[in-house]
Amino acid sequence: MDGQPELNLHVLGELTATRDGAVVDLGGRRQRAVLAALAMQRDQVVTADHLVDCVWGDHPPANANGALQAYVSHLRRALEPDATARHRGGVIARAGPGYVLRLPPDAVDAWAFEAAVEAAAGQAPGDAVCTLETALRTWRGPAYADYAGEAWAEAEVARLTELRGVARERLLATRLELGEAPLVIGDLEALVKEDPLREERWRLLALALYRAHRQAAALEALRRARQVLADELGVDPGPALRALEAEVLAQSPTLDGVTTPSASVSIPRPRTPDGLVDRDREMALLRSRLDELTDGTSGCVLVEGSAGIGKTRLLDELRRFAVAAGVWVRSARSSPSEHGFEWGVVRQLFGAGVDDAIGRDDRFAALRELCELTTGLAEEAPFVLCVDDVQWCDEASLQLLAYLVRRLDGLPVLMVLALRTGEPHEADELLAELAADESVTVVRPAPLSEQGTAALVTDRLGRGADPFVAACHRMSSGNPLLLRQLLRALADQGVPPDAAHVDTVRAVGSRAVASLVTLRLRRMPAAVTTVARAVAVLGPEADLMAVADLAQHPEEDVAAALDVLARSEILRDGHPLDFVNPLVRDAIHADIPTGERALLHERMNRRLKSSSSHPGDAGVPGS
């Protein structure tokens, strides 16, 4: 009601409640079980006997009804603290033989999620994507995570989990309908791995691969599906998968989906960039370049920055703007595993229509023919050419991008590239030449401010106390990816954003980002990893001599490894030696095998003892 505090109940994860963004203390596990059972029945009366079963199971206390009434009283006081004792009961009301939860439909995240999924089914594709993406972001972990193993919660948890699975499938199916096949392949692979017996996920994956001009990969996905179903269930694929396989083999035109610029006009996809903070300047620039494109002006924007700074998100928003404006988008994404395949990115951008051009032995002739193809497409309609992770682009495709940049003038083509700094590439000179071109606008997103961090904390966990927000900002150094990983882990564990849990931020965060950091290290030579681990063990004592001593590598090799780590933005550039943020240091330290960690610590202890014995040699004052 107007003038009253906003009360929200969150059950898509651990059970929590907030009033005007502040976390409400709901008491212990049994007391919260009363609220969970009421939320599951939604507007229905839940008998006292059923609530007793939910709270105590087969072992209720002698005065179970009295204890239940006490729990209800405590919950009312927590949820309605401003009401007098006589007037409490608006949220948890007594009704006949039990109680009923009375909250607006959008006050409980599970209720709002269900309504959103239902609404999306009747919306235009663009609106449906917005609705589903927003709804899926409300999930902070398994539904009713506190009670997932309880028999009384099992049916509702299973129902919501299934609904979430359906929503994720519908979202990716709709994005396929909007022509985003190359962008959803990774998400579909993840869905298939999560539940390989859901045939709809295999169907969507194979369809996305086919529409991304990867026919062989599509057939391989269908073969994998057949094998999994046979091994696990002893059955053949259903009619939908069999029909898709036949259509792929026949290269049926019905599989092509959105294939012309005019098709994109009929399915606009407007969207407000929810959760995007501190990026007003970058968004304004991309919008202005898109507006100029529709007026017939060309351009090239290079979004440059460290891993996780938000380059991909900006490209994603640009694609959404473009589709909403009826502008055709051609997208590609490079990867380390594919940069050795010649013309791989070009194939993603233009499909099978480039086979003749890239089949030429003369590279320059191929570039000219591809440029003519681009010119012909631009004469039909303006379009955006979008390439993510261009640092891993194959050399032939990168040559084309550099070639086109100098020849865009007069063509209604907007080229937008995202470049991760700190990644070695065989074509570094070509990348540097492209970035230095005077026609290229370079955008370097900055780390999030503390205010931006506070906005994301509020979005994920509820309104955060200043010390909690400061800890999140300090631990992530304003890196959006690290911050989102941290907040997701905190949400999954039900950590409230208050001052009492500041110390929890680092402990949870280091585990949350470990996989991101260790994956980057594994791409580097073993000596570089050893040096990074030595720096992590030494901490503030790290310098070139100490690291060389600990890693047992020549100083020259250690200096070269430190340069690699600095260029890769794992270590700060300069002195003293330090990681870009504490979470990276913690993740690397935690990844050290137990035996190696013990050995490194023993070497460090010996070095400290030696330094104490010979202060003049070590430059450390004696005790």
Please give the structural blueprint.
Elements: E1 7-10, E2 16-19, E3 22-23, H1 29-41, E4 46-47, H2 48-56, H3 64-79, E5 92-95, E6 98-101, H4 109-120, H5 125-136, H6 151-177, H7 181-194, H8 199-211, H9 215-233, H10 239-249, H11 261-265, H12 280-294, E7 299-305, H13 311-324, E8 328-333, H14 344-350, H15 355-358, H16 363-380, E9 383-388, H17 395-405, E10 413-420, H18 428-436, E11 440-443, H19 450-461, H20 466-476, H21 480-492, H22 502-522, H23 526-538, H24 544-551, H25 555-567, H26 582-591, H27 594-613, H28 615-618
Parallel strand pairs: 7-10, 7-11, 8-9, 9-10
Antiparallel strand pairs: 1-2, 2-3, 4-6, 5-6
Please explain how this structure is put together.
By secondary structure, the chain is an alpha/beta fold. The chain has five domains: 1-174, Orthogonal Bundle (Arc Repressor Mutant, subunit A); 179-257, Alpha Horseshoe (Serine Threonine Protein Phosphatase 5, Tetratricopeptide repeat); 280-443, Rossmann fold; 450-511; 519-617, Arc Repressor Mutant, subunit A (Orthogonal Bundle), CATH 1.10.10. 57% of the residues lie in helices and 8% in strands. It has 28 helices and eleven strands. The chain has helices at 29-41, 48-56, 64-79, 109-120, 125-136, 151-177, 181-194, 199-211, 215-233, 239-249, 261-265, 280-294, 311-324, 344-350, 355-358, 363-380, 395-405, 428-436, 450-461, 466-476, 480-492, 502-522, 526-538, 544-551, 555-567, 582-591, 594-613, 615-618; strands spanning 7-10, 16-19, 22-23, 46-47, 92-95, 98-101, 299-305, 328-333, 383-388, 413-420, 440-443. Strands 8-9-10-7-11 form a five-stranded parallel beta sheet, sandwiched between helices. A three-stranded antiparallel beta sheet has the order 1-2-3, with no helix packed on it. It has a three-stranded antiparallel beta sheet with strand order 4-6-5. Helix 1 crosses helix 2, helix 4 (109-120) runs antiparallel to helix 5 and helix 24 (544-551) crosses helix 27. The longest helix has 27 residues, at 151-177.
